[in-house]
Amino acid sequence: MKKMKSKDSSEILLGFKRILDDGSTSFWKVKLEREPISMDDQRLTYSLEPFLNGVIAKLDLTSFYENSNGITSEKDIKKALRTIKKENNLLGVILDLRENAGGFLSQAIKVTALFIKNGVVVISKNSQDEMRYLRNIEGEAFYNGPLVILTSKLSASASEIVAAALQDYGVALIVGDKTTFGKGSIQYQTITDKSADYFFKVTVGKYYTVSGKTTQIEGVQADIVVPSEYSPFKIGERYLKYPLKSDRVKPAYTDRLTDINGKIKLWFRHNYLPNLQKKVNFWQKMLPTLRKNSQMRVSKDPIFQSFLKKQDQIKLKIKGEDIQISADDFSTVDLQMTEASNILKDMIVIESDLRKASGL
């Protein structure tokens, strides 16, 4: 492998030897050109759904990524939203984090920053109780319309930080499984010997949201529960051996800049604090209506009801230790996304009616 690595755009000659059925061998050469590999299959994808006089954007983000070529999840989301806004009337956004197990913390903060003003995104606390506040200092939200974060039991780590922050500030509603994975621990991967076959991870602290809660064990609770295909299974940090307990720290909505000193603190007072994101309660007030509408749709949807019955059967199989589950146990229709879209449509209509009533 070392011989294959070199500068970009340089050539490499590979030789291949094949043993034929008659025992003889053949040998051939292949000339290749080295180029950076872009993992496009892991990058953001999106689709649009027409609604009223505009569209709903469904952003599917499976990880929080960044590389040396300047490709990042934050830039991809920003580019997608910019393109959609330019070509359509963007009415609402669904950020799909159901298959997102985490990634770069820095990207989680930057993605959160697209939807809020200045403010604390996440708090870290180590074993010595030292607190570190990780902030958004961009100033203005890139998008501030109706927003749904779609989650599942597989949503973990960095994706939980994003979902929790946007939920805490009240700018988004969480739709999905009752709770996410529940990984709020900070771990360092330690390699004592580069030639070793094994490594170990050391847990050094925990992450907390701006409200002071930790995602450890508890995960991010859904505002409106719409179960995924993973719902019946025991998935999450709580089911692992020796998980850290859940606890709380003081909320940081009013950022006191306790971890910043000197001239930098002066800059934050003049440039950061005046545009601090305030907690919004509007969507929380609308939750009873949104939940009622969602429950009504699900109860009248025969396909969704069939899906829920199959989930109950899966739970019984698991309890009876007979877990031979076939593909027929799962729906081929993305019922969770369909209902998330319906919830977002309700949010769009509610906001539109409020604007009309206010004469805006």
Automatic annotation (TrEMBL):
<dbReference type="GO" id="GO:0007165">
    <property type="term" value="P:signal transduction"/>
</dbReference>
<dbReference type="InterPro" id="IPR029045">
    <property type="entry name" value="ClpP/crotonase-like_dom_sf"/>
</dbReference>
<dbReference type="Pfam" id="PF03572">
    <property type="entry name" value="Peptidase_S41"/>
</dbReference>
<keyword id="KW-0645">Protease</keyword>
<keyword id="KW-0378">Hydrolase</keyword>
<protein>
    <recommendedName>
        <fullName>Tail specific protease domain-containing protein</fullName>
    </recommendedName>
</protein>
<dbReference type="GO" id="GO:0030288">
    <property type="term" value="C:outer membrane-bounded periplasmic space"/>
</dbReference>
<keyword id="KW-0720">Serine protease</keyword>
<dbReference type="InterPro" id="IPR004447">
    <property type="entry name" value="Peptidase_S41A"/>
</dbReference>
<dbReference type="GO" id="GO:0004175">
    <property type="term" value="F:endopeptidase activity"/>
</dbReference>
<dbReference type="GO" id="GO:0008236">
    <property type="term" value="F:serine-type peptidase activity"/>
</dbReference>
<feature type="domain" description="Tail specific protease">
    <location>
        <begin position="25"/>
        <end position="227"/>
    </location>
</feature>
<dbReference type="GO" id="GO:0006508">
    <property type="term" value="P:proteolysis"/>
</dbReference>
<dbReference type="InterPro" id="IPR005151">
    <property type="entry name" value="Tail-specific_protease"/>
</dbReference>
